[in-house]
Task: structure prediction
Amino acid sequence: MPEHVLEAHGVSVAFGGVKAVDEVSVAVGEGQVVGVIGPNGSGKTTLLNALTGVVPAHGVLMVDRRRVRLGAPERPRRAGLVRMFQQPQPYRALTCQENVLVATPDRRARGLTGAWLLRPRMLRVERARWASASAALDRVGLAAKAQVSAAFLTYGEQRLLDIARGIAAGPRVLMLDEPSAGLNDQETHALLVLLRSVAADGVALLVIDHKIDFIDALCDRITVLETGRVVAEGTPAQVWKDRRVMDAYLGTAQDA
Result:
């Protein structure tokens, strides 16, 4: 078992008197891919929102054995949690390379002070940022479109651009919310290969998706949510043998 990069214990989110996430715990090891699945309304996206500080939440979040305060979006980001949303969110007025540059974390020695007093250092930092952006675009297969405006990308290419931005941010944990949504079979397979290669570099991946074949092939472990609670967790083979998963996620045999 790889050492845990992310550990979340007893995470809960309530909207009024309704608990959207109820005492959920999940852990992801270095280079491991953990899937979160469940029917619509089971709390999957809300869980990611809680872990990234988008919504107020209770519980314990640890990244690299250091506690990260929930409810403060800047804290998880500083700890290395990077989030991809359900819909690609490129800056359409910028080129692909500029889109990725925005995500690069090292912006030291910039501005007027850097230009006047720290110019050699600023130039080194900028060269490194541009090299990182170029490498990320090459990684996802968009190197040839580095100077193309993001507005002219296909939906699948916009998804890849989002992942390039995530890679360039240097994440410890990359969280993806339905990354295969809207992709055809060929694009889905290419995404699977790409994400597996990212995990092989030691990045922990937490993935929500509705495509069962994609989740089964990608994930080392799966956590199943139903009405905000964990009903099963384990390897894909273990999870799909669990009757609670069949009832909660696929429906009962009688319903089928």
